[in-house]
């Protein structure tokens, strides 16, 4: 009993004072977890303290402004004289490959590749109008407190190569395999075509231009980083990246370098500058666009531009798998979504204008990111996107609701565009397979499908409307067909289907009508698309005879 009293007394003496009840701390994302954020720039950049301002950024901005002044001068010359150089744009090289006309864009593309083989990717950093758009977008976003964060992916980074292959090699491959109806011209038949009277022939209209500025500029920069389109969409960058690996002019380092990381922090191309110069003595990453910000901000002035033996097969530090932001299942999901959305959802989608290919690529990549966001909003316990907390302790924030609704609407629009195009392509395939002696019930059935396709779309697709007019013509409703074709022609300024142009021309010639200007424009459009149609040449000769009378 006495021992029990002693024990109780000891326990009472040794007992700690009452503990203060502390509310539970909400769990925080594990920074070691590669799935915690999308994307996660903060763990890619070294912590190095304040970085001095770049001395060359203002100079580069002036050069980019001068480039756009030259573009404006080119447009002014065309407006003033009615004729000027063909568009000085690398994408015009496609017209040379497919049409056999050597234009200014093709010459520029060859010159740029040759220059990159010597000097590296200086053109990308100092003269590209898309880089200027991205730099301006990043600057404006920073003004409103939105700092772009790059996305590091192992598969999406291959998109430029896929796009380049599709643009420059797919059609020659189809011709080689006999899948192309019109053979490609051989290089020995190519001819110079350096001037044009229609400067805007191959460029999108005003709406697609605005969409390009918004998508390629602000959205991609905000979601994918300051050079998001260069990294995940630019096909020309794929060619320049190959040439850059063999360039003798490179960014090098002296012994004064102490590995502070200032250079890496200012690099908008996501190059691990301080690691690469420590390992290789030079920058080997082909993503380096030679903007020279890293050289300018070095506190030891250890970086400089000089001659060096290229290391074309050296592995760049940013390609290290451990720095990827996505798991392999997410990588595969993003790659599949980006390809399907770009090729079958956005490309050619109609929004008063057709979505061009490169814009479709950008929209496809954004669709992949939107899908990843939706998946992570459902599966992740903690989630932050671009400095914004979306989920905390398993609960959605107000921002998450806005982001979720926006991402869902964006993905839904991509699905709707894909469904419309699937129905349209099925119509055109059935129309091509329709025999000249097709029965009236077959024509009526196709006409009904065309009407349903137009009812499904937000805006009437002119391609489907042209097909509908062709069906009306074959059903003997020529007057109705001609009226709709003329209205469509006056609305857009052109028709795209050769048969639709020919029908419109016939309706504007005696004895059906007398609109020689419309008939001539329609026939010349046919010859622009297909120059091997005897009927079109005969109609053009008849139009010239009537005009002479």
Topology:
Elements: H1 2-14, H2 57-81, E1 84-85, H3 93-99, E2 101-102, H4 104-119, H5 122-126, H6 129-143, H7 159-168, H8 170-177, E3 191-192, E4 195-196, H9 206-224, H10 228-232, H11 235-244, E5 249-253, H12 262-266, H13 273-280, H14 293-297, E6 303-307, H15 328-346, H16 357-379, E7 383-385, E8 388-392, E9 395-396, H17 398-433, H18 440-456, H19 462-474, H20 478-492, H21 498-507, H22 516-529, H23 534-548
Parallel strand pairs: 2-3
Antiparallel strand pairs: 1-4, 5-6, 7-8, 8-9
Helix pairs in contact: 3-4, 4-11, 6-9, 7-11, 9-16, 15-16, 15-17, 16-17, 17-18, 18-19, 19-20, 20-21, 21-22, 22-23
Q: Could you explain the architecture of this structure?
A:
With 549 residues, the chain is mainly alpha-helical. 57% of the residues lie in helices and 5% in strands. It is built from 23 helices and nine strands. The strands form four sheets. Strands 7-8-9 form a three-stranded antiparallel beta sheet. Mean pLDDT is 87; it is low at 1-42.
Q: What is this entry, summarized?
A:
The protein has 549 residues and is mostly helical.
What is the general shape?
globular
Radius of gyration: 30 Å
Low-confidence stretches: 1-42
- Count of folded domains: 4
Major sheet characteristics = 3 strands, antiparallel
Q: Give the number of helices.
A: 23
Distance between the termini: 135 Å
Summed over residues and divided by their number, the pLDDT gives a mean of 87
Number of strands: 9
Tell me the structural class.
mainly alpha
Strand content: 5-15%
Spatial strand sequence of the major β-sheet: 7-8-9
**Residues in helices, as a percent range:** 55-70%
């Amino acid at each position: 009993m006495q021992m029990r009293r002693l024990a109780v007394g000891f326990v009472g003496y040794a007992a700690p004072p009452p503990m203060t009840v502390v509310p539970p701390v909400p769990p925080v994302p594990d920074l070691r977890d590669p799935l915690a954020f999308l994307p996660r720039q903060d763990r890619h950049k070294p912590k190095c303290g304040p970085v001095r301002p770049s001395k060359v950024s203002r100079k580069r901005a002036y050069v980019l402004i001068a480039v756009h002044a030259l573009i404006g001068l080119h447009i002014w010359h065309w407006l003033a004289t009615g004729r000027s150089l063909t568009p000085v744009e690398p994408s015009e090289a496609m017209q040379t490959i497919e049409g056999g006309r050597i234009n200014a864009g093709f010459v520029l593309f060859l010159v740029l590749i040759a220059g990159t083989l010597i000097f590296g990717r200086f053109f990308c950093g100092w003269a590209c109008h898309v880089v200027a758009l991205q730099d301006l977008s990043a600057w404006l976003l920073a003004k409103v407190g939105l700092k772009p964060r790059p996305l590091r992916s192992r598969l999406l980074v291959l998109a430029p190569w896929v796009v380049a292959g599709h643009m420059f090699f797919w059609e020659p491959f189809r011709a080689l395999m006999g899948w192309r109806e019109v053979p490609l011209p051989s290089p020995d038949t190519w001819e110079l075509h350096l001037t044009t009277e229609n400067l805007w022939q191959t460029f999108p209209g005003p709406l697609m231009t605005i969409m390009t500025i918004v998508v390629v500029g602000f959205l991609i920069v905000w979601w994918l980083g300051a050079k998001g389109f260069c990294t995940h969409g630019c096909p020309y960058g794929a060619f320049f990246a190959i040439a850059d690996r063999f360039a003798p002019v490179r960014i090098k380092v002296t012994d004064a370098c102490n590995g502070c990381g200032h250079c890496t922090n200012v690099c908008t191309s996501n190059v691990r500058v301080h690691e690469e110069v420590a390992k290789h003595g030079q920058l080997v990453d082909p993503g380096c666009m030679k903007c020279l910000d890293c050289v300018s901000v070095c506190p030891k002035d250890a970086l400089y531009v000089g001659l060096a033996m290229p290391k074309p097969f050296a592995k760049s530090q940013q390609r290290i798998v451990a720095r990827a932001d996505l798991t392999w299942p997410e990588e595969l999901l993003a790659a599949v979504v980006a390809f399907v959305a770009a090729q079958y959802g956005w490309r050619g989608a109609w929004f008063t204008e057709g979505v061009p290919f490169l814009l479709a690529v950008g929209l496809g990549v954004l669709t992949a990111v939107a899908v990843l966001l939706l998946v992570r909003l459902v599966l992740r316990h903690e989630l932050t996107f671009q400095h914004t907390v979306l989920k905390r302790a398993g609960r959605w924030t107000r921002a998450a609701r806005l982001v979720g609704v926006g991402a869902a609407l964006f993905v839904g629009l991509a699905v709707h565009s894909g469904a419309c195009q699937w129905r349209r392509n099925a119509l055109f395939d059935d129309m091509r397979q329709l025999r000249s002696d097709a029965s009236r019930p077959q024509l009526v059935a196709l006409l009904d499908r065309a009407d349903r396709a137009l009812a499904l779309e937000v805006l009437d697709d002119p391609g489907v409307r042209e097909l509908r007019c062709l069906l009306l013509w074959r059903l003997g409703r020529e007057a109705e067909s001609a009226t709709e074709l003329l209205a469509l022609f006056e609305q857009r300024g052109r028709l795209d289907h050769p048969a639709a142009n020919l029908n419109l021309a016939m309706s504007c010639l005696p004895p059906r009508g007398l609109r020689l200007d419309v008939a001539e424009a329609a026939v010349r459009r046919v010859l622009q698309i297909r120059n091997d149609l005897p009927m079109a040449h005969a109609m053009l000769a008849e139009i010239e005879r009537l005009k002479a009378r």
